[in-house]
């Protein structure tokens, strides 16, 4: 059922149909990248709530979020290696920053699905909660953050962006 799917990823049929039209494939890729970058650069915290399957570009989407909460039964998989594709650089960087090189290689090279608990151990998700607790957990986290200074949150996010771009203390 659709309730069991967070994201099936990019429309591979559409990509294959446009494989002869490099400009269309490139436009699709750039549009997706702009969307992920926009989420990542929001001045407010973003939360991904993964209740079902999350594949390929769907994982790219959650990597763009500040927090990732999932059910233990959620399935996550980065599938480009199965499709003769390469996971994009910005998402690979975010993945590497979250899970480290060994787990990033495992996820990218194997393209095998993992469940919520393993994703938590790797650092791909921040919290795993049961289905009957997930909505309350998300509301509580969002409420706690909403009570804090918007200026501080925005500033913290800018600092994270600077660090992600390679800024160091001696560069400021």
Give an overview of the whole structure.
The protein contains 7 helices and 7 strands. It has helices spanning 12-17, 22-40, 57-63, 89-110, 116-122, 131-146, 150-164, and strands at 5-7, 47-50, 53-55, 67-70, 75-77, 114-115, 127-128. Strands 1-3-5-6 form a 4-stranded mixed sheet. Helix 2 (22-40) runs parallel beside helix 3. The termini are far apart. By secondary structure, the protein is an alpha/beta fold. The radius of gyration is 17 Å and the shape is globular.
List the helices and strands and how they pair.
Layout: E1 5-7, H1 12-17, H2 22-40, E2 47-50, E3 53-55, H3 57-63, E4 67-70, E5 75-77, H4 89-110, E6 114-115, H5 116-122, E7 127-128, H6 131-146, H7 150-164
Parallel strand pairs: 1-3, 2-4, 3-5, 4-7
Antiparallel strand pairs: 5-6
Helix pairs in contact: 2-3
């Amino acid at each position: 059922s659709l309730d069991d799917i967070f994201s099936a990823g990019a429309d591979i049929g559409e990509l294959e149909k446009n494989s002869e039209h490099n400009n269309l494939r490139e436009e699709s890729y750039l549009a997706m990248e702009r969307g992920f970058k926009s989420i990542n650069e929001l001045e407010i915290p973003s939360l991904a709530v993964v209740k079902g399957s999350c594949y390929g570009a769907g994982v790219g989407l959650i990597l763009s979020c500040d927090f990732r909460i999932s059910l233990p039964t959620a399935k996550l998989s980065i599938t480009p290696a199965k499709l003769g594709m390469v996971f994009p650089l910005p998402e690979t960087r975010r993945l590497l920053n979250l899970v480290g090189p060994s787990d990033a290689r495992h996820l990218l090279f194997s393209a095998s699905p993992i469940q919520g608990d393993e994703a938590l151990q790797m650092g791909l998700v921040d919290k795993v909660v049961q289905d009957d607790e997930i909505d309350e957990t998300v509301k509580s986290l969002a409420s706690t953050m909403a009570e804090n200074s918007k200026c501080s949150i925005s500033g913290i996010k800018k600092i994270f962006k600077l660090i992600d771009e390679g800024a160091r203390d001696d560069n400021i």
